[in-house]
Amino acid sequence: MNKNIESLLSEKRVFKPAKDFVKKARIKSKAQYDEMYRESIAKPDKFWAREASELLWNKKWTKVLDWSKAPVAKWFVGGQLNVSENCIDRHLDGPRRNKAAIIWEGEPGEKRTITYAQLHDQVCRFANVLKRNKIKKGDRVLIYMPMIPEAAVAMLACARIGAVHSVVFGGFSSESIKDRLHDSKAVAIITADGGYRRGSIVPLKKNVDDALKLSAAEVKRVIVFRRAGNDIHIEEGRDVWWHRELEYVDANCPPVPLDSEHPLFILYTSGSTGKPKGVLHTTGGYLLGAYCTVKYVFDVRDEDVYWCTADIGWVTGHSYVVYGPLANGVTSFMYEGAPNWPDWGRFWQIIEQERVNILYTAPTAIRAFIRAGDQWPLKHDLSSLRLLGSVGEPINPEAWMWYHNIIGGGRCPIVDTWWQTETGAIMITPLPGAIPTIPSSATLPFFGVDAAIVDDSGKEVPPNVGGKLVIRKPWPSMLRTIYGDHARYKQAYWSEIKGVYFAGDGARRDKDGYFWIVGRIDDVLNVAGHRLGTSEVESALVSHPAVAEAAVVGRPDEIKGQGVVAFVTLKTGTKVTPGLREEIRAHVGNVIGPIAKPDDVRFADALPKTRSGKIMRRLLKQIASGEVVTGDTTTLEDLSVIAKLSAPEE
Ligand code: WTA
Fold first, then answer.
1. 269 CB less than 6 Å from ligand 1?
2. Which of 248, 269, 459, 614 could form a disulfide with 421 if both were Cys (CB 3.0 to 4.6 A apart)?
3. Ligand 1 midpoint to CA 560 (Å)
4. Atom of ligand 1 nearest to the CA of 429
């Protein structure tokens, strides 16, 4: 058994919500959660209609859920609403009008506060810029921005006019931008000259230029925000400056009422095969999921400063930096740069200065902070914190305890939230005032989430037996399809086990019904909380002229959760030069982005294959982790390959 799982099975520490937290919490007891959960499963229409009525609808729905064409879900059929109106305009008539919607800090240290009224003004003006540039309802718009308020403004402006945004993480390469442009058939790109990261400037506009050189696809317009002041090229007739465009528009831009199933965004994420897939989310259900989870899971209050550290390039940034908090009228704090810039104290300094109350971050960051040393957080007053969240990968008990003690001062509940790009919103999580937590367990399903652990035949397994994590009922914020490839949607999520959504994760459930997520059991790696398909990295590797064949596996990594190990065979006649390994790593970085760079590239004469030619990943994983190769090798074609691969590096 893997050491990680062993330690989880013996984890017995239980943390009950503290009395003073419970007093103010929305859901105050397990019994109250149980009752609401029961209703959400038995009478989903009633439950979700009540929650949805807290949003602003331009036209009421006629039916809560249409599942007659499963696995295609329609939520709030016939209803109309606008996400930007719900996130902004709705708050303007009351005390939230002049409350901070976004507080931002740039990496070099500048600060900005944008109230709801100001955000309204900016989003309306920029939506008019989009219109002026002939971007229409239904058009796809690629957003490639640093973590600055304008990234949120761009997303909300798209939502206001019914354009479909596709945010691409600023760490992705021009090749990745090109692929996403092609797949989404985007007509415009919103970007910035550059963004700050660890003291240097990321040349965002240049990456966009390079992508457009590879293939301009259908892009007619590039709108550039001036952030870093670095020199850039402006292509006459195609590129325009954001600030110049603003001179031509006014602030009058009524939100367009949109069908509840109107597409809101496409977000690309890695799967176990092929290129990243464009996960499509729609309007009503998605917004409800983001709204409801921020309300119940983060149990937000009007006076909170809430900080989710995710980049808007990931789904966590969509649901928990922008849409969820703003739909709740919360103050969302945004930080542009790296956690260790100029030193490992940056996060803690921000929390002290901004009096942050809720912090939502990833285990990989927590483990990096642990390594950097307790002296950094201990220098700062973190007493404003009242709730902590974790997302993106399993949090090991040691990291959980450190987060609890050193950051939370032993008083803050931790919500370990399990979900995915595809689920749109948090699916399995404690509710902080109601559910006792155990380090490393994501505990119980959120309202309306019918999660179960099943075996390969789809049968639910008994407590503490590992299996596949599935969702058996549709939920409002679920993905609707893979953009442009509906067959892949059905195949990837609904075919493994008939009639249910298979998430790609392995997990077990204990006798109290708590879920313990083990991690991906498909060919998807989770590197520092980022999803990476082994096949994506492999195709990047074989696009290097020296590489004949490649197989990529994950190996446990103390900080990143998983590291990437590439086994590579070279084309005949290629010499292993001292620089080749680094060159291949850099090549993968250029093709996908720095996060995909293999930690280790191992040259091999051959890869272990079955007689039918399939690469035996299980063996490679064991080799990559430094384990002795065990288990069945009878189907292996050439046993000597193993001996060679296991031999120490030249
Ligand atoms: C993993 C991120 C354990 C999981 C929101 C999932 C987690 C993948 C947790 C989705 C958690 C996310 N505990 N594992 N609390 N949260 N994961 O699409 O393997 O970037 O399938 O969405 O992250 O990653 P994605």
1. yes
2. 269
3. 13
4. 15
412 and 442 belong to one structural domain: yes
Name residues whose C-beta falls within 8 Å of residue 409's C-beta, 6 or more positions apart in sequence: 382, 383, 385
Reply yes or no: is the peptide bond before residue 608 cis, omega within 30 of 0. no
User: Which residues, at least 6 apart from 643, have a Cβ–Cβ distance to it below 8 Å?
Assistant: none
Quote the pLDDT of residue 6: 54
The answer to whether the beta carbons of residues 133 and 149 sit under 8 Å apart is: no
**Residue where a domain terminates, one of 492, 519, 546:** 519
Asked if residue 452 and residue 319 are part of one domain, the reply reads yes
DSSP summary character for residue 319: I
Expressed as residue numbers, the domain containing 306 is: 3-84+263-519
Closest-CA residue to 223 (of 246, 253, 192, 196):
192
Q: Which of 463, 485, 519 is the last residue of a domain?
A: 519
Q: Are residues 237 and 281 in the same domain?
A: no
**DSSP H or E stretch at residue 155:** helix 149-161
Q: How many domains does the chain have?
A: 3
Residues 232 and 278 in one domain: no
Q: Answer whether residue 10 shows pLDDT above 80.
A: no
193 C-alpha vs ligand 1 centroid, how far in Å? 31
User: Do 429 and 489 reside in the same domain of the chain?
Assistant: yes
Residue 49 is assigned to a structural domain of this protein: yes
The answer for residues whose C-beta is within 8 angstroms of residue 602's C-beta and 6 or more apart is 565, 566, 567, 568, 645, 649
Least confident of 451-460, 594-603, 640-649: 640-649
Which residues touch 591 (CB under 8 Å, ≥6 apart)? 173, 175, 176, 540, 543
One domain, residues 327 and 394: yes
Segment 416-420 shows an average pLDDT of 98
Quick check: 5 pLDDT over 70? no
pLDDT, average across residues 250-277: 94
Residue 598, in any domain of the structure: yes
186 Cα–ligand 1 center, Å: 28
Q: Which of 92-96, 148-152, 189-193, 528-532 has the lowest mean pLDDT?
A: 528-532
Q: Which residue reads 């006014």 in tokens?
A: 250
* pLDDT digits 0-9 by tens, 593-639: 999 999 999 998 888 888 777 888 888 888 888 887 777 777 777 77
For 320, the 3-state DSSP assignment is helix
**Is the domain of 407 the same as that of 501?**
yes
Q: Is residue 33 part of a domain?
A: yes
Q: Answer yes or no: pTM beyond 0.90.
A: yes
Task: Give Cα 403 distance to the centre of its chain.
Answer: 21
Judgement on whether residues 22 and 62 belong to the same structural domain of the protein: yes
The answer to whether residue 99 is domain-embedded is no
pLDDT digits (tens, 9 = 90+) for 86-95: 999 999 999 9
What does the alpha-carbon distance between residue 598 and residue 596 come to, in Å, rounded to a whole number?
A: 6
The overall average pLDDT reported for the chain is 94
- Residue 429: what residue type? T
CB neighbours of 607 closer than 8 A, spacing ≥ 6? Answer: 549, 551, 567, 569, 615, 620, 641
Q: Which of 272, 311, 419 to mutate to test the pocket of ligand 1 (most atoms within 8 A of CB)?
A: 419
**Ligand 1 binding pocket mutation candidate from 517, 521, 525, 595 (most atoms within 8 A of CB):** 517
pLDDT of amino acid 1? 40
CATH at 250:
3.40.50.980
